[in-house]
Specification:
With 422 residues, the protein is an alpha/beta fold. Helix content is 36%, strand content 16%. A 6-stranded parallel sheet has the order 3-2-1-4-5-6, with helices on both faces. It is globular and about 65 Å long.
């Protein structure tokens, strides 16, 4: 049953207490995060479909610790051993104290020597399991960078250079991960060869449009039949090895998406409605250049009826040679703030559901019609910051950066617009 709705939020309430509107946007965002929390969704899935007998677990990704904690807690799960590979700062102390669990860190957003060490340890972990022990894989965003095994002809220097170019190329995640598959000995379904005859299944938190298991984490256990035919144009120095051809299997392992962007947006809309706001999930996905998306969203909010408006997806940013601080969500938020200058009735939150925007510790930002004025008072020029991909510095000066810390999930980005009555 739905909870009873709270009293309708009035214009007087929000105009009298401007901070209240920002608090409401954060509350709605956190409701979205709670709906796709890795611990909760894995525990619920396995509680409804508990594996028979002992299992080994491999958790890889920024939500890996939360997902593994959910698997360990799920009723009926008998954990034999587990391997966790996640980003520094995303560990769970209780998992590290469990003698059955090995916890490793990998490089992110660029793969590094820790990523390669994690790849070696992953293959060793699988090879050392009993021959008939079922393996449960828990995959989430970040897995592409956190663990790697290099094919012949690919060095770590080339891999890092390629990934640095991919991050700043403006390509969407589908194209980016297909190039990563071609530079890997375990992505694009290749990791399945290391399972032997062990039964295995995969639970996924999706951070890609369409929830495609071949693209999530670069599909280590799901062959991508289109990968070789749909590679983007690459710079001359990035020559893919022959091993980049994708394997093809008649049967794929069972893959289950346990949390997605749609789940988060649905929960956000329900929370907004319970707070008394008219709420609408917008049909168009966030995509393309962040600044173009910001223009479109800001114009929609300027002409919208009062209420909460929700977008989800993932934009792109083409980075200059020497980018500043920030990420695509801060870039989008600052670009929107320029359009909304002087508007007293509109606020906008743009944030990554993983709690990290680009290489910063911020999840994103909350902006309003005075954001650029506050930044200017602190000596920051918003338009110049956008050109230098330094939106994070500008927004920090304005006091608009949103900090959440690691969230235990990763289902792309969310933008929440609030249009108040004039």
């Amino acid at each position: 049953r739905r909870r009873p709705r709270r009293a309708t939020v009035t214009a007087d309430m929000l105009h009298t207490e401007p901070a209240l509107a920002r608090q409401h946007l954060e509350t709605i965002f956190h409701a979205a995060l709670a709906a796709v929390d890795g611990r909760a969704v894995v525990r619920r899935f396995l509680g409804n479909r508990p594996p028979a007998g002992r299992i080994a677990v491999v958790a890889i990704g920024k939500a890996g610790a939360a997902m593994l904690a959910g698997a360990r807690e799920a009723p009926g799960v008998q954990l034999f051993s587990a391997l966790l590979i996640t980003k520094p700062g995303h560990f769970d102390a209780s998992l590290e104290r469990d003698d059955r669990i090995t916890c490793l860190q990998g490089g992110h957003p660029l793969p590094d020597e820790y990523s390669l060490a994690a790849g070696t340890r992953l293959l060793r972990f699988l090879a050392g399991l009993p021959a008939d022990l079922p393996v449960l894989f828990l995959l989430s965003g970040g897995a592409s960078s956190l663990v790697e095994v290099l094919p012949d002809g690919v060095s770590l220097d080339l891999l890092r250079r390629a990934n640095r170019w991919l991050i700043g190329s403006g390509l969407d995640i589908r194209a980016v991960n297909r190039v990563r598959q071609a530079l890997s000995a375990i992505k694009g379904g290749r990791l399945a060869a290391w399972l032997g005859k062990r039964p295995a299944s995969v639970l996924l938190i999706s951070d890609v449009p369409g929830d495609d298991p071949a693209i999530i984490g670069s599909g280590p256990l799901y062959p991508d039949a289109l990968a070789a035919r749909e590679l983007p144009a690459l710079p001359d120095w990035l020559v893919l090895p022959p091993a980049g051809k994708m394997p093809c299997c008649e049967e794929t392992l069972p893959h289950h998406v346990v949390a997605s962007l749609a789940d988060a947006l649905t929960a956000a809309a329900a929370c907004a409605a319970d707070m008394g706001y008219p709420a609408r999930v917008m049909p168009e996905a966030l995509a393309g250049p962040a600044e173009s998306a910001a223009q479109h969203i800001a114009q929609q909010l300027l002409s919208a009826a009062p209420g909460i408006y929700l977008w989800g997806g993932e934009t792109t940013v083409v980075l200059p040679d020497q980018p500043g601080q920030g990420g695509r969500n801060q870039q989008l938020a600052l670009a929107a703030a320029l359009v909304l200058q002087g508007q007293q009735a509109i606020l906008l939150l743009a944030a990554g559901t993983d709690g990290n925007d680009g290489s910063t510790s911020a999840a994103g930002a909350i902006v309003d019609g005075l954001s650029t004025s506050r930044a200017a008072s602190a000596g920051q020029d918003a338009a110049n910051a956008l050109r230098r991909a330094d939106a994070g510095t500008c927004l920090a000066a304005a006091g608009d950066v949103l900090l959440t810390g690691p969230t235990g999930t990763n289902v792309m980005d969310i933008v929440i617009g609030l249009r108040m009555p004039d």
